[in-house]
Amino acid sequence: MKQPVRVAVTGAAGQIGYALLFRIASGEMLGKDQPVILQMLELPMEKAQAALKGVMMELEDCAFPLLAGMVGTDDPEVAFKDADYALLVGAMPRGPGMERKDLLLKNAEIFTVQGKALNKVASRDVKVLVVGNPANTNAYIAMKSAPDLKPGNFTAMLRLDHNRALSQLANKADVPVADIKKLVVWGNHSPTMYPDYRFATVDGASLKDKINDADWNANTFIPTVGKRGAAIIEARGLSSAASAANAAIDHMRDWALGTDGEWVTMGVPSDGSYGVPEGVIYGVPVTCANGEYTVIKDLPVDDFSRAAMDKTLAELEEERAGVAHLL
Ligand code: NAX
Description:
Blueprint: E1 5-10, H1 15-25, E2 36-41, H2 46-62, E3 67-73, H3 76-79, E4 85-88, H4 100-121, E5 127-130, H5 135-144, E6 154-156, H6 159-173, E7 180-181, E8 184-186, E9 194-196, E10 201-202, E11 205-206, H7 207-211, H8 214-226, H9 228-236, H10 242-257, E12 264-269, E13 281-289, E14 292-295, H11 303-323
Parallel strand pairs: 1-2, 1-4, 2-3, 4-5, 5-6
Antiparallel strand pairs: 7-10, 8-9, 10-11, 12-13, 13-14
Ligand NAX is lined by residues 10-11, 13-17, 41-43, 48, 89-93, 110, 131-133, 135, 157, 160, 189, 239-241, 244.
InterPro entries: L-lactate/malate_DH, Lactate/malate_DH_C, Lactate/malate_DH_N, Lactate_DH/Glyco_Ohase_4_C, Malate_DH_type2, NAD(P)-bd_dom_sf
Domain Lactate/malate dehydrogenase N-terminal: 5-149
Keywords: NAD, Oxidoreductase, Tricarboxylic acid cycle
């Protein structure tokens, strides 16, 4: 049996945490032969800590053979101690009357503290996935607050957008979702992101040629994927949770165990490719192998795509400017 690895999850008693922890403990994220120690962070408030305790009791009651230990805490330095993986899910939600700018600043405080704690106590190879919104900018803040860790190990979740786009395309083209390869979602995890199937294939043939509908792309597909989160809230009365947890599992599993040459979307610090300034956390296509991701470079960018990629970049630059004075 392998040595256990330490997986930190913040916001562990929240909706996504509840849909995520049991799957990590059952081996769906890191493999059925990889024991895990779960290190769970929640807010210090009594209600949050009591809810966390309840989640830990349920984890215990599953008797997962791969669950080698559990820690529940309100201290980031305890939760991140020697962590090999950190899933930063907990964030300040947008309250009534709260401006976008205030939300950004409230979350900047959280992710500065958590970045510093990771810097101080996590494994030097910790792989970080930020789910809590605004995910890309929160990941940027955590990365900037952790100067001793590898910047490339701070990532943001665009996998839910990627998976949403895959299903919309599979429905439109009437093909199995698993047959679609080489999809990309560029940019910010927000309604401005740009799902792009120009390179996508089905059984090796072009998906774009098969669909051949520019109007559907611009006026149905892109807005549907962009507004999917809002549509879920409208239907369910609550934001996406199981699908978000599933996307987090997909993201971390692929990063840790590899994609076998297939493209997936990750929000990663830019190396300057595609006209995105260095360091901005931007959704790009990657392949993963041996615990590392590699960005797919030099894809052609047409005028429509350039405009879409610049629009989502402008939003990220605006967010970055809004927190620049804190970093
Ligand atoms: P919930 O409100 O159900 O849970 C969040 C939990 O985090 C709460 O239990 C809260 O006590 C805890 N928390 C808040 N601040 C914390 C801190 N500083 N340290 C530790 N714990 C803290 O939200 P949930 O539905 O689970 O969503 C969590 C986050 O994911 C939200 O920011 C949400 O916007 C974001 N999402 C991101 C997605 C993505 O694709 N990147 C999609 C789904 C989701 O909307």
